[in-house]
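Colleagues,

Please find the record for the two-part complex below.
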Amino acid sequence: MIRIVAMLATIMLGYAAAAAESVPSCDVPESLIPADYELTRVAAAIKDNRRLQITVVGSGSSALSGPDGARLAYPARVEEALRARLPGHEITVTTHIQPRETTAEMAAGLHKILADDKPALVIWQAGTVDALHGVEPEEFRASLDQGLEAIAAAGADAIMMNMQYSPRTESMLGVTAYADVMRWVAEQRTVLLFDRLAIMRYWNEEGIFDLYAATKDYAMARRVHECIGRALASQIINGAHLDAENMQTKR
Amino acid sequence: MPSPAPAVASERDLRLDLFRGVALWLIFLDHIPENVVNWFTIRNYGFSDATEIFIFISGYTAAFVYGRTMRDRGFLLASARILKRAWQIYVAHIFLFTIFMAEIAYVAATFDNPLYAEEMKILDFLKQPDVTIFQALLLKFKPVNMDVLPLYIVLLLLFPPTLLLLLRSPNFALAGSALLYALTWKFDFNLPAYPNGVWFFNPFAWQLLFVFGAWCALGGAHRLSGVLRSNIVLAVAVGYLLFAFAIALTWHFEPLQRFVPTWLSDWLFPIDKTNLDVLRFAHFLALAAVTVRFVPQDWPGLKSPILSPAIRCGQHSLEIFCLGVFLAFAGQFIITQFSGGPLLQTAISLLGILIMVATASLLSWYKGIEGRSPTARVKARDADLAGGEA
């Protein structure tokens, strides 16, 4: 039986290696970045002012450590990607990232951030710290509600981002309950969800990234953030209906 | 003719072992996060899952075994046996915790990836083993998927007085249990967990299922037999199961969600597992009603060799449950280590169940040869059940 398992494992490994070599692109199928709800404030900001202010609120997984971490993490990458896709527009992304902040703490701090930044869009990455601390899902849900309420009241669109897919820690860090809450809240409040969990799982399954690999090297982490930035830019553009043709007719 | 257990159940109901065995398999499968075989487990087709089956049957067998002891030999002896059983489960839980710690320590020592700096903080508790291990011994710190046994322990600790009441006045006891359940929902009773939060399986809510199982074992099933034979009950149960199935489908196929009206989803969700949502409890009741109707106690299939592996697993539930938790850890480890696809996942799932069945057979064989003469075995069987398999 062990031989069979070993044989199967070898086949799988071979398959994964071949896939990793031949698929360099990290494009995500549209179904994984749905744009069911319209980002009206983003659309208006682009159309009326040709400028877009985005605020990213999140915890440790919204940042990269190391030299140039800030420039290479996804908030900076989404800014870059949007500038490339919306030429002639002023795109600014500001970040408010506190490594150990729970969703309740982030929600409490949102009023000040919204007043300072006056963003058209808030990208709110949440859930991981709550899972680490074992916050009650019901409390987590209430915090999300409170935060989204504040964002709506400040006249901004919101995109929630859930946890990273992390196969090595999956059996120790239970994120499913929190991911379910976010999915449910997104649906209830008709807010877009950037399903980082599903997207990274897709990359892992397709062999685009081997997220199980142990490495001290930053190369893969950077590429993952670059790809998250691009996918997020696509979701924003689709959500605000800013596709190329549209932009051309407006110009 | 479907006939539920008589008032004083004299023979062990093989259906209990069968469904508990199946529940143990399902719990094993569900505990492997990346597994295509999960598609076959009941949680995808309705509101309740294998945990409900496991807790109900555990309550049923506990009352079946210790109820007789309490009646024949008194409160003290029965309580002592129940507490001994709770202690065994506690030791089993700590054993599993040790395995879990070993896995975590291994991952902490070998895994490094700057992408997961945040997630790796879950390993921080290794830095203060004094606190963590102490909290685990107090059952406050419970790693992922290790919540069922602590629930079982608390249920057993509360069981001696409950059983006494159940024997004296079963309906009063069941009403008390339902009242505690209702008060738990109203006032949010629960036990504290470490580092914060509360127990994932709230014992004050889940006790309802356990006590209901015990109530059924002590004659409740017999009293319900008229209800269970009614076609109206069957129709309601089947209707509810179909409704739950339809809702469950919308979780897996998002386009279907538009067919669920907002008021309905507002009312349905979230379905609270921690506090044993009424929808889950009702779903279990419906499943049980349909099952009892179509699988009578004297169903010849229960003696068929096809079902004997599951029955055997159900007869050694504590050992097989622990083994299942361990195998799920190990299986997940292998699947992620080799980035395994559906093929490997299926192989691991089948292998895991095979190991569970083999172990259960070994345990049965072991018990059989433990130097008892055939006549002594008949006598000793009840003690066996009482000591080991409730």
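Chain B has 15 helices and no strands.

Comments are welcome before we finalize the supplementary table.
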